[in-house]
C-alpha cells in the first residue's frame, strides 16, 4: 500500500472517531486547514469524499461553510480566499454536483465579460476580470480531469467562454513595465553605438 494511501486512511480513521465527540471543532479545523495549507487540498478532498460515505450531513455542513466562505471572499475581494475556496470545491467534485462548479465558473466568466464590456462594464477593472479567469483555470489541474469525465459538454462550454473572454479583453501593457522597455532600448542603442 502506498504511503499517501496509508496516511489518508489513518487521517480518515482519526477524523471519523473524533466526529462523535467534536463535530463543530473538526468542521472548523478542516476549513482552516484547507485555507492555510492549500497545497494539501487533494488530501482534504479525499477525506471529504470518504467522510461523505458515512456522514453526509457533516459533509453538507463543510460544503455550505465553504460556499459561505467563497461568497464572503467575493464580497470582500479576498483574492487568496477566492482561489483556495474554488480549488477546495473543485477537489470535492465527487461529493457535490459537478454542474454546481460549472455554475460558479460561468458566474465568474459572466462577471469577467461584463467588466471588460465597454458599454456595461468598467474596463479599468480588467485585472479583476483576469483574476476570475485565472481562478477558473487554476482549478482545472486540481479536478479538471474528473470534471471532463463527468460533464464534458459543460466544461467545453466553460473553455469556449474563456476563449471568448480572451478575445475581447484588452491587451494593455502595465505602465510599471515601461521602465524595462526603456532599458532594452538603451541597451540596444549602446550595442549599436559600439558596433
UniProtKB/TrEMBL annotation:
Any one Gene Ontology molecular-function term assigned to this protein's record: RNA cap binding
UniProt GO cellular component terms: nuclear cap binding complex; nucleus
Domain MIF4G stretches: 1-190
Record-linked SUPFAM superfamilies: ARM repeat
Source species, domain of life: Eukaryota
Protein name (Swiss-Prot/TrEMBL): MIF4G domain-containing protein
Family annotation (InterPro entries): ARM-type_fold, CBP80, MIF4G-like_typ-3
Gene Ontology biological-process entries: mRNA export from nucleus; nuclear-transcribed mRNA catabolic process, nonsense-mediated decay
Signal peptide: none
